[in-house]
């Protein structure tokens, strides 16, 4: 289990999104309020962004607890973008423990984070996966199948593993996709953008996304719809 968030909007610093909010992602790494599976998220963290003006996505990942990394605290105010994704990790038992297993994963320009668990046999092998962990395999499969048919892909995976939890964030330079499937997901519409997260920080204005629903955010606005088995 993990906690994660994604921002789609005007440029903001990683510090303002991750470190500074009351009960933000940093606090959720040691004291989550709505995490039903696991108690802390101390098995790594990651931040990814699409630079404003274009260019390749950039990532910074670690296998250490977020609260222990003094370099992040000093650099995060200087990492600024309008497309940001971040996650803290609680590793599923038996999964790899190195930084390559920490989200976000990167495939075909999409930054991907998985909050949940899934049997690796239900996902299937992938030479494109960045790690042997369940989240990396799922990220590779979803992007390979096409992010816009994410509903069909998740239904296929869940049919093979009915106990799976399949909350995903997929972020490109032009679009944010967020799924709720088996865990919590919340949405906040600010005047300058949209924030999606596993659980709210202390700011007002959060709305809960229904289970088995997809959030799509583009420059045109926000759409929330049921995750369908066909696309």
TrEMBL record:
InterPro entries: EgtC, EgtC-like, Gamma-glu_amide_hydrolase, Ntn_hydrolases_N. Pfam families: GATase_4. Keywords: Glutamine amidotransferase. CDD domains: YafJ. The keyword Transmembrane does not apply. The keyword Cell division does not apply. This is Ergothioneine biosynthesis protein EgtC.
């Amino acid at each position: 289990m993990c906690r994660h968030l994604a921002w789609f909007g005007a440029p903001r610093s990683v510090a303002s999104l991750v470190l500074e909010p009351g009960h933000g992602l940093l606090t959720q790494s040691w004291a989550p309020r709505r995490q039903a599976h696991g108690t802390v998220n101390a098995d790594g963290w990651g931040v990814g962004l699409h630079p404003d003006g274009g260019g390749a996505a950039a990532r910074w990942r670690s296998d250490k607890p977020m609260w222990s990394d003094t370099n992040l605290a000093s650099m995060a105010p200087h990492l600024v973008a309008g497309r940001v994704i971040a996650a803290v990790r609680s590793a599923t038992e038996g999964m790899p423990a190195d930084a390559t297993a920490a989200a976000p994963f990167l495939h075909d320009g999409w930054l991907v984070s998985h909050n949940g668990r899934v049997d690796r046999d239900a996902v299937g092998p992938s030479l494109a996966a960045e790690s042997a962990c369940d989240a990396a395999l799922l990220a590779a499969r979803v992007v390979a199948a096409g992010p816009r048919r994410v509903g069909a892909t998740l239904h296929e995976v869940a049919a093979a593993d009915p106990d799976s939890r399949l909350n995903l964030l997929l972020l490109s330079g032009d679009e944010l996709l967020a799924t709720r499937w088996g865990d919590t997901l919340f949405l906040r519409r600010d005047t300058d953008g949209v924030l999606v997260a596993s659980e709210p920080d202390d700011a007002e204005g959060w709305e809960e996304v229904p289970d088995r629903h997809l959030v799509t955010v583009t420059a045109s606005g926000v759409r929330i719809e049921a995750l369908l088995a066909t696309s």
